[in-house]
Design brief:
globular, 2 helices, mainly beta, three-stranded antiparallel beta sheet
């Protein structure tokens, strides 16, 4: 899986999000977190475009531990201002955390949220249960808990 992720990153792949397509750290809008039904995993958190969101089990608090090459493979969900709750998401579980580069990452139930570069379309969940950068990555349920 790491080789597949590395191949996509080296080819310039980036996930669609509340960021520009040129860079996952160039924030241009307020992030929206919603819930969608994934045929294999059930109800999961997604962004406004239907892209799957993940939590990193190495993040034991609200602060991210994913930087450098980790954040290249697993870009954080960034926002300008307070994130918004879309359909099915619980607004009271939404929050933010400051990253070391000064950007603002969205949290849900205290977990920083991320994408994975191998997800290309809404409904993709190629990062589910992947052990990468020292811990597992999991899709997030509407209750804020990991799925799987």
């Amino acid at each position: 899986m790491v080789l597949a992720i590395a191949a996509i990153v080296s080819c310039g792949g980036t996930p669609a999000s509340s960021t520009t397509s040129a860079s996952p750290t160039a924030v241009t809008t307020t992030a929206t977190v919603a819930v969608a039904n994934n045929g294999k995993l059930g109800m999961i958190l997604v962004d406004r475009s239907g892209r799957t969101l993940y939590l990193f089990q190495a993040d034991t608090g609200t602060s991210s531990t994913c930087y450098g090459s980790c954040a290249t493979y697993w870009p954080p969900l960034l926002t300008e201002g307070a994130p918004k709750a879309g359909a099915g998401a619980n607004a009271s579980l939404l929050g933010t955390t400051k990253r070391t580069d000064g950007t603002t990452e969205v949290t849900y139930a205290g977990h920083p949220l991320y994408y994975v570069v191998t997800d290309h379309n809404p409904g993709d969940a190629t990062g589910q249960a992947v052990n990468n950068f020292g811990a597992l990555w999991n899709v997030v349920g509407p209750d804020g808990k990991k799925i799987g």
